[in-house]
Amino acid sequence: MSIQLSIHEICDFFMQSSDVVYLHSSEGIITYTNDTIEKSVGYTKNEVIGKHFTDFIHPQDIAKAVDIFEKARKNEPTERFCLRLRHKDGRYLHFEFKRHAIFKDGIFMGSIGAGQDITAKAIKEEAFGESAEIYRVVVDNARDVIYTVSPEGIVTSVNDFLKTVTGFAAEEVIGRQYTDFLHPDEIECGAKIHEAIAKGEKPPIFEMRFLKKSGDYLQAEFSTTPLFYNGRFLGTLGIGRDISEKKKNEENLKNALLKEKQLNELKQHFISMVSHEFKTPLFVISGTAELLEKECRNAGNDKPRRGFKTIKENIARISNILNDITLLCDEKNDNIFKPSLLNVIDLCTEIIKDVSSEFSNGCAIELSYCDKISSRLKFSLDAGVMRHILINLLNNAVKYSAGSGKPVELRVESVENGLSFTVSDHGIGIPEDDLKKLFQHFMRASNVGNIPGTGTGMVIVKKFADIHEGKIFIESALNKGTKVTVIIPC
Fold it and tell me: Where do the structural domains in the chain lie, given as residue ranges?
């Protein structure tokens, strides 16, 4: 009895402790606890005293608690241990306990102990453990090689993906100098990078050749980060990626671009040669035809006049085709674009006059414009570029409107930050399937029949609209006509 009282006195001494202090009998019945029990697990002293200690233990921890109790009964030493206690609200808290077995005349009387709530610490450690496990899973399943190197340049860890890339297993690399796996020509550079990292520098992404188990080298891209703790350099964390295929593709692309450049230069040379070789005899034919026509006129013979006219028309047609092909194949547009302030109405009127003079199908061209155009008149445009755009649009509209009985319309309007040029006709229209291919070289709509043309007009329009940084919009319906709008910034 005197021992029991002295124990209570000891417990009362610890009443104000932040730990839960308890006493239980040899049967495991709780005979005492301090007031901290209510603050910690929600139960009052009266709700706990008289109950078996296992009534408050998490079901999964009961076997562990009973084993500790049996060790106490046998007077076996027990280190600190952790158990989960049930809170009155139903949740479980983590407690760390220390206990002392009480014996009298060699008979086990019970135990005295104290428990500290370590829930926050346990959750943190559990989260850290989960984070470490997640990190390990991520690293092991990464599609890059992730590694660490010590301050001395020794590989200290590497993920399993290394074997996929190089053929080396992790154990064949860990413990060896990282320079053992670099191409001999790049060891010095690798050493300098490691020295820079040791000084706290974070070098940019760099490329190096890395040894494969087969003896070959792959091209790798590395990203590294220095690891420091309390100012002490712990080593390097790095990520390596096999870019051999990427480098191969880049080299293939480079060679393809070079080949394309050479082909373009050859094409330019060929087009220039063909244009020159065709234009020279055409010039001779044209001059000879004019001389013959003049002699026939002087001799009073007008019968060949019709033939000379046909010769001139076909010479002009071939010359125009050669000019179009030369324009399409010319890749050097640097010196073409030269905008200046122009009277847009005068420019359109002049272009309409030039187009009308080439056709004898009776299709008129009407010009209209909004009030903003007539009040301002001058805009920053490239006359040469605009002539290519409008002449080809008007040529197409007149050519494919023959017999419609309605005029072709050219409408100029002021739009935000530019001008809108719309050419509308009432001709044969463009089939819907052909609209998608309209800007392909030498493409002609499937419904043009015997109407002459080369399929270069809209390609030229697109080329020169792009030079002027313009946009093209096309609306068309079969046998109802076509409307093409080109918006030019100026």
Answer: 2-123, 142-242, 248-329, 340-489
**257 φ, ψ (degrees, to nearest 5):** -65, -40
Cβ atoms of 55 and 82 closer than 8 Å: no
The CATH H-level superfamily of 2-123 is: PAS domain (3.30.450.20)
Structure token digits, residue 36: 């901290």
CB 66 within 8 A of CB 78: no
CA distance 389 to 385: 6
Q: Residue 53's pLDDT is what?
A: 94
Out of 285-289, 323-327, 341-345, which region has the weakest mean confidence (pLDDT)? 323-327
The DSSP code for 203 is P
* CATH number of the 142-242 domain: 3.30.450.20
Long-range own/partner contacts, residues 325-332 (CB < 8 A, 24 or more apart): 325/271, 325/275, 325/456, 326/271, 326/272, 326/275, 327/388, 327/460, 327/463, 328/441, 328/456, 328/459, 328/460, 328/463, 329/267, 329/268, 329/271, 330/268, 330/271, 331/264, 331/268
Q: For residue range 397-437, list pLDDT tens digits in order.
A: 998 887 778 899 999 999 988 999 999 999 999 998 888 88
Say which CATH architecture domain 340-489 belongs to: 2-Layer Sandwich (3.30)
The CATH class given to the 248-329 domain equals mainly alpha
C-alpha to C-alpha distance for 288 and 310, rounded to whole angstroms:
14
Indicate whether 8 pLDDT > 70: no
Beta strands in 125-262 (DSSP E): 145-149, 155-158, 206-211, 217-229, 232-242
Distance of CA 429 to the CA centre of its chain: 41
CB 408 within 8 A of CB 483: no
Can you list the alpha helix ranges (DSSP code H) found in 359-438? 371-376, 383-399, 432-435
Q: ∠ at Cα 248 (245, 253), nearest 5°?
A: 125
474, HSE (Cβ side, Cα atoms, 13 Å): 19
Judged against a pLDDT cut of 70, whether residue 261 lies above it is answered with yes
Are residues 72 and 113 in contact, defined by beta-carbon separation less than 8 angstroms? no
At 259, is the secondary structure helix, strand, or coil? helix
